[in-house]
């Protein structure tokens, strides 16, 4: 029964693909010419329109808190909890003022048709069980930030699939620490009801809270160490 019900979800997911494709030529042309600002603009148009389309298809009621904290200039590092598959389109829809990519697991590159888009938007893919490859990926993310691209990190490392947040992985703020850009904590609450609660898609009401930016420039190692716990508590507090 779940397989039959999920056919509709998969169909809707791929129905949104054209909202990404129509910006492909613009992204590649800007990248080829070295026009980073134009490339970021095209990526933002692609991801924000795609995210809004997906969330509308699933008839999700979205409540945004702290909208005034969404940055209009980058680069920044977003740090968010991770409840559901739906977190990616939700963030793309809501964080619609500057471009951002994701730090994500390598397996996403194998996703049919969507795999290439994970990388096209300047995301960084990590092999979880390969420390050396992970360090290279972190450096790649820092290089992107130095070029003006923003990054979103899910420090739990995987979906919680429910309301309870997992502990953050060690080193989750390393990208921000090494690049010195602002960190913006994000709390997502309720997306697990869209799919993970029953194993097939359903209508749900979700909340997303954008907390105030935290500056990381010129922080000492001790301050950076303490900041990791502070950000985790801010995000966790948003769930209550």
Keywords:
240 residues, alpha/beta, Glycerol-3-phosphate (1)-acyltransferase, seven-stranded mixed β-sheet, 9 helices, 7 strands, 43% helix
Could you give the count of β-strands? Answer: 7
The helix tally amounts to: 9
In the sheet with the most strands, the strands line up as 1-7-6-2-5-3-4
Return the CATH topology: Glycerol-3-phosphate (1)-acyltransferase
| Class inferred from helices and paired strands | alpha/beta
Overall morphology: globular
Specify Rg, calculated over alpha carbons.
Answer: 17 Å
Largest sheet: 7 strands, mixed
What is the top-level CATH class? Alpha Beta
* Low-confidence runs: none
- Strand fraction equals 5-15%
Query: First CA to last CA: what distance?
Result: 34 Å
Rounded mean pLDDT is 89
CATH architecture: 3-Layer(aba) Sandwich
Please bin the fraction of helical residues.
40-55%
- Helix/strand order, N-terminal first: HHHHEEHEHEHEHEEH
